[in-house]
Design a protein that fits this description.
Elements: H1 2-26, H2 36-53, H3 58-70, H4 72-78, H5 87-113, H6 119-143, H7 148-152, H8 154-159, H9 165-175, H10 185-215, H11 219-225
Helix pairs in contact: 1-2, 1-3, 2-3, 2-5, 6-10, 9-10
Amino acid sequence: VAKSIASAFSIGVVFGLICGLVWLKLLSAIRDRTYDDILTLSVTLFFYGLTEVVGGNGAIFALMFGLILGNGAEIGGIFRMEGIVEIGGIMRKFMSQMSFFIRTYFFVYLGLILFIENRMTVLYSVALSLLLLVGRFIGVTFTAFRDTELRKNGGVLTSMMPRGLAAAIMAQLVASSGIAYSSMFPELIMIVIIVSVVISSMGSSLLKRRMKKDGGDAAPTNALTGNT
């Protein structure tokens, strides 16, 4: 099982590295063309599927592909590639159009795959979420020990712990690996994601109310940015 997982990860990394470098170079020939962002997404989806077909992990491919494109200037310098396009602007343009759909359909996806067979799983998930919250509180406390501004914003730093798509993908990978009791992972992780999002939403709402009460509408901005 470990060999199979390692193989899937390795194929995803290699495919992502090669495709990222090649596409980074090709983008220099189509810079500023209409729909260059859509074309980049299409290439990503195509090779995502191809990676899965040959036994690799598509999510790892997409991660590596994105890392190469997102750090195009640095990667181009390492490999002495000339005329490299800064991909950040291209992808930000597209993601600004798609962010609403991604957020919406992610939660639709969670609802479709979540099927609670064991009520104890809910208790385990809530307990795990609370442990994550406690761990984050301890981490924030140590980090902000000598920083006044961080201590002022300890509440928001502690509550900002939502889990998301990465956790859901990894849970599906574990579930398909054949490891003992792995079938409960998606159910467990999905509930953790939901609970962590609820905690984050409640924390940010409470903090916003407190800031408005203490300093008016400008207080949240000042507290979060460190401005006075």
